[in-house]
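P.,

For your records, the input lines for the assembly:
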Amino acid sequence: MGKQPPVPLIVNDRRSDGRLPNEHRPVRMEVGVISNAEGSALVAYGNTVILAAVYGPREVPQKHLELPDKAILRVRYHMIPFSTSEGRKSPTPSRREIEISKVIRTALEPVVILERFPRTTIDVYIEVLQADGSTRVTGITAASLALADAGIPMRDLLVGVSVGKVSGTIIVDLNQLEDQYGEGDMPLAIMYGRGLITLMQADGEWTPTEVNQAVELAFKAAEQIYRLQKDVLKNKYVEPSMTLTI
Amino acid sequence: MLSVTQEKGVIPKLKQDVMRKMIEQGVRIDNRGLNDYRELSIRVGVVRTADGSSLVSLGNTKVMAGVKVEVGKPFEDTPDEGALIVNLEIAPAASPDIEPGPPDENAIEIARVVDRAIRHSGFLNFKSLSIVTGRHAWFLWVDIYVLNHDGNLVDASTIAAITALMNTALPKVELDPAGNILRIDRSNKSPLALNVDKLPLTITHAKLGNFLLVDPTREEEDLSDGIYITGIAGGNVVAIQKVTGAFTKDEVNYMISNSVNQYVKLKNVVTSIMANPQTDLKL
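Structure tokens returned:
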């Protein structure tokens, strides 16, 4: 509250890192980066770099947690101690990380066809390797790719994208500075092919119209990331000889 | 700490069918309309050992909030502001399926949503909590206890927290010329500076099939396909939390505008009760 940013967040429609309000940072994706995992992905939104690894479906270690009609998801979002620009982040889970693990789990649950694997667990581990804002949504994009890489049946791919408000302007893909000093922050997870939102949070102050504009901007960015996710998976799994050319 | 898929409460199939059929006709099993809150009652100052307290009933959901104020050192990035710390526990007394222990992810999530709704509303002036810039400021510890869980813990907890803050008074602090604290006089208190126009409230919607209803009971939460919370202050959105499920853009837009409308009604109820509140500790 009332904190002044060290540099102006937006001047002449340009953000502190030179981007336009609706401009996403470069997105980099790679799948199958952890040989031991069933599926994995490394995703970067600019300087934010996240690893996701998926294990399972496998037996539930704590029997009382298994469900007779579907698989359970076990999700951990975690920041490694040297991932932040401030001092060392304690590796013990903070309240923030516990909440984020939960909202990511409930973002993934509508996407994964859990009914296919009763009495098993599918484990999703998200490690923030380098943080520069928008870590939970980058983690969601990575988790979705890792689940697909693991061959787990899904209803759609899930795209994470953040929107926010700085100096009254709605922006996409917040960096650390914008997250810390902006007027509002709104992370979303979007099943783009189905037009469904499975994660939506907000803080700051927004008019109802601004919320609507922010969601529209998030869907625009999600379309691009969704396409990239498909390309990355196709590049790994579809051999050129298997593609049909008409 | 892993977040694990939770088992939902079991509702007999027959009752589920009745609940769904009624909702299609615009009525709920407790005879409410889809857009009706349960009866709200608020008692404040119920716990004399707290610096401010409140007991809220929303239907059968009962939540108690207490405020303790302490002098602390302001955070480096906000030297002229005090602090707000919100914690929540679902007491094992509140429901047969709650085990004693430190707050789990559900409790932490509720506390953090309530915290964000208050923090971003402008209701509480953090600068008014400053005593000596950079050295002393008031820390407000808001502890919320759920005593009976019948759904919609978030809206009840927000009301409990804000009404406990409205009931809170800060002791007088005597300083020496160098700004050292000589005495904290708890017999001489003045109320917190609060902007009631920016009173924050949360509005929880549950999605059941194609229907969206407010203030779900625990059974409705268990039956629901999704839960979505909007924090409103004045006419603006100050917090959002999708808790479970998946929502379309149209559903989100409806819930945001419906929350703005519900806010006006709920705020009227809260302020009229607070104009002349009961103060005895009675569940």
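Two observations worth noting. Residues 16 and 98 of chain B are 23 Å apart (CA to CA). The longest strand of chain B covers residues 136-148.

Regards
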